[in-house]
Specification:
By secondary structure, the chain is an alpha/beta fold. The protein has 15 helices and 9 strands. Helix content is 48%, strand content 16%. It is globular, with a radius of gyration of 21 Å.
């Protein structure tokens, strides 16, 4: 019997539709309330999708031996309408880095999105992500995000929010837009199946995700930025490490190791850290009247990491030494300058 070609094509398309495309992996530890919000928002977004789109998604939760109500929260959401909902409830704490690494290695779908347990996917976010991934021709996606304190629905009032998806065939152009935000795991979706480069430099770095993000940046051929806000990130909700140590020498060491054949990419990551990450962090401390950076001997540590880079003297030294109000005005001016002159990254 001869099959009708159009019937065969429809069957082929149907088979493609039920093939899982994306794993949303959530590493968690003792954040039951945040995880509950995360999963409620995730479930709401998935329920808005047609059934064919829901079947493209796997959910994986790696519970790192939580001692609060995390297991009960997970059980309440186990019937989420996705292709597969898998949970690992560990009996021993393997550490944050190893827990995140397991999320990457577990994924069997073409793409994985490792989502912080205290972050939230915003309205319409998954739909935009699936549309970007549909052709499976990108190696990495970076997504727009904003930080929230108490209510994730309180979006920033800004004239600079953008919309739409932009594609990049050049890693340098892509990196100039993302730079230090490669470290924000919830805003990155990556292709799976590469041999993650997890060496000694990443073992206690609090940035184990760079073991697969940087190799994909180095060797990838097509990248995307979804400029819409996809993720709301809970601010000031992590700790247990020295900010200057992690985003100074540690990040430099990792970039130099994994991007060693791409010096321009190394420079972009470092320059973005100097021009965006630390100025914002310093000003947040000033607004909150906190002295943590001073106690950490901020100036000396930053000088050790970045003193050879002229951007350190332009973007950081004045914020450290100027009076508070003058520092705030200086920060406003430099931020405005960077919006119109991002070429300083190179």
């Amino acid at each position: 019997m001869t099959s009708n070609p159009s019937t065969m094509n429809r069957r082929h398309l149907a088979d493609m539709q039920i093939t899982p495309l994306l794993t949303i992996a959530i590493p968690t530890y003792n954040r039951a309330d945040f995880l509950d919000l995360n999963l409620r928002c995730l479930n709401s977004e998935i329920e808005k999708l047609p059934e064919s789109a829901r079947s493209l998604i796997d959910i994986y939760i790696s519970n790192n031996a939580s001692t609060d109500g995390t297991i009960e929260v997970i059980e309440r959401h186990r019937n989420m309408p996705v292709n597969r909902f898998t949970t690992i409830n560990r009996t021993e704490n393997i550490g944050g880095n190893a827990n995140i690494e397991q999320c990457y290695r577990f994924a069997t779908t073409p793409y994985v999105w490792i989502l912080g347990d205290d972050d939230v996917i915003l309205d319409g976010g998954i739909k935009l992500v699936l549309a970007c991934l549909a052709k499976q021709d990108v190696d990495m996606i970076y997504m727009g995000s904003y930080g929230y304190v108490d209510n994730y629905r309180h979006r920033p009032k800004t004239r600079f929010q953008k919309h739409g998806t932009r594609m990049y065939d050049d890693a340098v152009d892509f990196a100039k837009r993302v730079n230090v935000m490669f470290t924000f795991i919830s805003a990155i979706i990556v292709r799976t199946g590469i041999e993650a480069d997890i060496g000694d430099a990443l073992e206690n770095s609090n940035m184990v995700q760079l073991g697969w993000i940087f190799p994909l940046l180095r060797d990838g051929h097509r990248f995307a930025i979804i400029r819409d806000w996809i993720v709301a990130a809970k601010t000031a909700n992590s700790g247990g490490y020295n900010l200057v140590d992690v985003f100074g020498r540690s990040l430099q060491k990792i970039a130099q190791l994994l991007l060693r054949d791409q010096p321009r990419l190394i420079d972009i990551v470092e320059n973005g850290t100097i021009m965006y990450f630390f100025p914002y962090s310093i000003m947040r401390e000033l607004r909150n009247d906190q002295k943590r950076f001073v106690e950490e001997n901020l100036a000396a540590k930053l000088a050790l990491s970045f003193g050879r880079n002229w951007r350190y003297r332009v973007f950081l030294v004045p914020l450290i030494h100027l009076p508070r109000r003058v520092a705030q005005a200086y920060y406003f001016l430099t931020s405005a300058f960077l919006r119109v002159c991002p070429r300083c990254l190179l």
